[in-house]
Amino acid sequence: MNEISLCMIVKNEEEVLRECLSSVKEIVDEIIIVDTGSTDKTKEIAREFTDKVIDFEWIDDFSAARNFAFSHATKDFIFWMDADDILLKADQDKFKKLKEELNESVDTVSMLYHIAFDDYGNPQFSFRRNRLVKRSNNFKWKGAVHEYLEFGGRVIKSDVAIRHRKKDKKNVNVQSDRNLKIYENRLRKGEEFTPRDTFYYANELRDHRQFEAAIQFYQKFIDMEQGWVEDKIRACINLAACYRELGDLENEIEALIKSIVYDVPRPEVSCRLGDLYKERKLYNKAIIWYQIAIQANVEEIQGFRQESYSTWYPYLQLCVCYWHTGQKELAVEYNNKAKKYRPNDQAILNNEKFFEEYFSNKS
Predict the structure, then answer these.
(1) What is the 3-class SS of the chain, one letter each residue?
(2) InterPro entries attached here (predicted)?
């Protein structure tokens, strides 16, 4: 059986590191922890799991730190995760099975990454990341911020899912402007941004509610010939969100429509266009867009994916729209479909009660 090295970079992760490492300690054969300057008990906790805890002087470059960690791996494959990531029991079992089946013909394994959840703990925002790579290929990390692993060869898609638990960290707000500052320092030095840098810098600006500046960089990225198509689509969606925050409806619609240039409408785009028609009481037009959202094949989406826009949300909006167009039975049907995803949602339950009273009075 092939053996696996876990490589991580950490800093001040005492709140989450123990649970993270506990969730993978029975899967991996080697744990390498690279610390970039912790002042809490992070290294002490790490040493409970491994004697390979190595210091690295932080130079505002995530790729440099990750490549340093990778350089200390000695096993057949390298697995990476962050300290605020975790594998649930079901995914631990899937990973163990994957490890048993892993062979030399595989170069890279992608895994699902769930980063946002609904009130019931169901994943709502997910995408794939290349998590497990053959060490002998010597794949490298690229990019100082929002780094990515350059890979090649045979890639397989695993059903293993990693859950991100950033909200569990008390010090998250203290660190939230770190990436933005790194980008701004690079700009001050006159560094030229890659298309990926431009896109992620725009995201940082948007997250910090600097919407006018974010719009400028999203537009700059969209106008570039280079760039991953999924990032182009996401840039259009995020650009529309910035215009929405600024109350610019015309440009919001234009940005959403622009995303369709790259591929069929993403469920999020369709739902937002449906919302715009619904808000204006143009229910029949809204229905068209919500129906497009539920018909999308989300499994083919390689980039960011928000589950709500292809599940309960369009169903619930269709319930409202069909009711207002006099199609009462369809309204009930789509409320029931939404309930399958959110059985305890108060709005859905209120609809159910309303329908019961309405049809009872009518009869």
Answers:
(1) CCCEEEEEEECCCCCCHHHHHHCCCCCCCEEEEEECCCCCCHHHHHCCCCCCEEECCCCCCHHHHHHHHHHCCCCCEEEECCCCEECCHHHHHHHHHHHHHCCCCCCEEEEEEEEEECCCCCEEEEEEEEEEEEHHHCCCEECCCCCEECCCCCEEEEEEEEEECHHHCCCHHHHCCHHHHHHHHHHHCCCCCCHHHHHHHHHHHHHCCCHHHHHHHHHHHHHCCCCCHHHHHHHHHHHHHHHHHCCCHHHHHHHHHHHCCCCCCCHHHHHHHHHHHHHCCCHHHHHHHHHHHHHCCHHHCCCCEEHHHHCHHHHHHHHHHHHHCCCHHHHHHHHHHHHHHCCCCHHHHHHHHHHHHHHHHHC
(2) Glyco_trans_2-like, Nucleotide-diphossugar_trans, TPR-like_helical_dom_sf, TPR_rpt
pTM summary value: 0.89
Domains in the chain (CATH in brackets) are: 4-168 (3.90.550.10), 178-362 (1.25.40.10)
Q: What is the mean pLDDT of each run of 10 residues along the chain (363 residues)?
A: 97 97 98 98 98 97 98 98 98 98 96 91 91 98 96 96 76 68 96 96 97 98 96 97 97 97 96 97 98 90 88 97 98 98 95 95 81
